[in-house]
Amino acid sequence: MEFLVRGAREFNEPGVLMTFEETSDEITRNVESLGFDLKSLVDRKKLFLDYVRIEPSEIQEAGDLSDTQGVLVGLNVRREAERP
Fold first, then answer.
1. Which of 5, 30, 79, 80 lies deepest, with the highest CB count within 10 Å?
2. DSSP state of 22
């Protein structure tokens, strides 16, 4: 969460958080105690929160989940070392 909030606030980079356990409202309330104002970031289109409800019976493992670089490239995420 800190990575997304700092990226939006300090580097003006939008972020996406997809959660499978907490709704957008729940996660917003839960991180207020950490000093994160997610509602403001969402309103300014600097953060997109999405809650996806998945039933345990709908989960099917597919592919090699150990290769996260492909996922990061697909989301156009830059690593900290690549920042200007």
1. 5
2. S
